[in-house]
Design a protein that fits this description.
Elements: H1 2-7, H2 9-14, E1 17-19, H3 30-42, H4 51-54, H5 58-64, H6 80-87, E2 99-101, H7 103-116, E3 124-131, E4 134-135, E5 144-146, E6 151-154, E7 157-161, E8 164-169, H8 181-195, E9 200-205, H9 212-220, E10 224-229, H10 233-238, H11 240-253, E11 257-265, E12 275-284, E13 287-288, E14 291-295, H12 304-312, H13 316-328, H14 339-345
Parallel strand pairs: 3-9, 9-10
Antiparallel strand pairs: 1-2, 3-7, 4-6, 5-6, 7-8, 10-14, 11-12, 12-13, 12-14
């Protein structure tokens, strides 16, 4: 409650909704509905049906600032049906959906909260991108079977800067993992630069985001990037000598060994230009484990080893943020029938 009051999160989130209900008939305003739903999730109650009991809970009522009902015969807080109508809102109020939410305003709010958390503009920020599976068990809109994850699922796109969530885009799973990344990155970068025009921005992601469209956009918009690069026979040949040296060292020491090679690389047909690639030639567990990254950062600025080990490998911390969203905050509880309602939940 104190944290929410300090940053005004639920108040600001509630302002992203339009309430066309008759004011004199409203018992639970949008702000109290949003606060009740958010606090319930934070307390471990992810299902709307839980609120038929929680509507009488004094702790949740205290958080919402509603210890008593406004009129006789009502509970201090809303039940599942009222909260469900909040989630099922459209872009504009309709006859049967009187509460609507503005997805554009909600998307902007996440970036504003991140910007407001800083007293001064940092010199550089790193935006981490990743996609993950969100298994679904019903016949929700946008349901598709994903061969890699071996289940019916959504494929949400997450963008973080450190611990701050900047975007969570719900997507069907019958798409490329990087689909929509350029649009979301362009929106976020533009929003950040309106407040911090001189900040340097680095995009970091695994090989699923190593796409010409995204790299070309970065190069055209003064944004640096560091992406994983899927290995192939041509790339493996580039680090063959380093792999031999790593194998010899591993045989001599009995421990994993690695070497790095820095080179310019151009694909046969998918890239518009040659780019800097760093190859990690690692021998571990008695086998070769070559890995590659592509970046806009120059060798003069950062050498191959620290680029890979200190900067690229740090992207794994973002996966912990996704786990927190899904396991602690129930972001994968996308059991509503429509994509729009599930996007609001996410």
């Amino acid at each position: 409650g104190a944290t929410d009051r300090a940053i005004g999160l639920t108040e600001r989130f509630a302002r992203c909704f339009t309430d066309a209900r008759a004011p004199h008939l409203v018992e639970h305003d949008v702000r109290s509905l949003v606060l009740q739903r958010v606090a319930g999730i934070a307390l471990g109650y992810e299902d709307l049906v839980d609120h038929d009991h929680l509507r009488h809970d004094p702790v949740l009522a205290a958080l919402a600032g509603r210890l008593d009902a406004g009129r006789a015969g009502c509970a201090p807080l809303a039940g599942k049906s009222t909260l469900n109508r909040l989630e099922l809102g459209r872009g504009e109020p309709t006859r049967y959906h009187r509460i609507a939410h503005d997805t554009t305003a909600i998307e902007a709010l996440f970036v504003d909260v991140f910007l407001d958390a800083h007293r001064a503009a940092p010199g550089q920020i790193v935006l981490d991108l990743d996609a993950t599976d969100d298994p679904i068990h019903g016949h929700q809109e946008g349901r598709f079977f994903h061969g890699y994850y071996d289940c019916y699922c959504y494929l949400p796109l997450y963008i973080f800067c450190g611990r701050h969530l900047l975007a969570s885009r719900l997507r069907p799973s019958n798409i490329d993992g990087a689909a929509g990344a350029v649009e979301d990155v362009a929106r976020i970068v533009g929003h950040i630069r309106r407040r911090w025009p001189r900040v340097r921005i680095l995009l970091r992601a695994d090989g699923g985001f190593c796409r010409e469209t995204l790299m070309a956009w970065c190069e055209a918009n003064r944004v640096d990037f560091l992406f994983g690069l899927a290995r192939n026979a041509r790339l493996a040949a580039e680090v063959a000598g380093e792999l031999e040296a790593a194998e010899a060292e591993s045989a001599r020491t009995g421990r994993p060994a690695r070497r790095y090679r820095d080179f310019r690389w151009l694909t046969r047909d998918s890239w518009s230009r040659a780019r800097r690639v760093v190859g990690k030639a690692e021998w571990t567990g008695g086998a070769a484990n070559p890995r590659f990254v592509v970046t806009s950062l120059s060798p003069a600025e950062i050498k191959a080893r620290p680029l890979y080990e200190a900067i690229y490998c740090a992207r794994g911390e973002m996966e912990n943020r996704i786990k927190e969203c899904q396991f602690d905050l129930f972001a994968d509880r996308t059991s509503s029938g429509t994509m729009r309602a599930n996007q609001l939940r996410l």
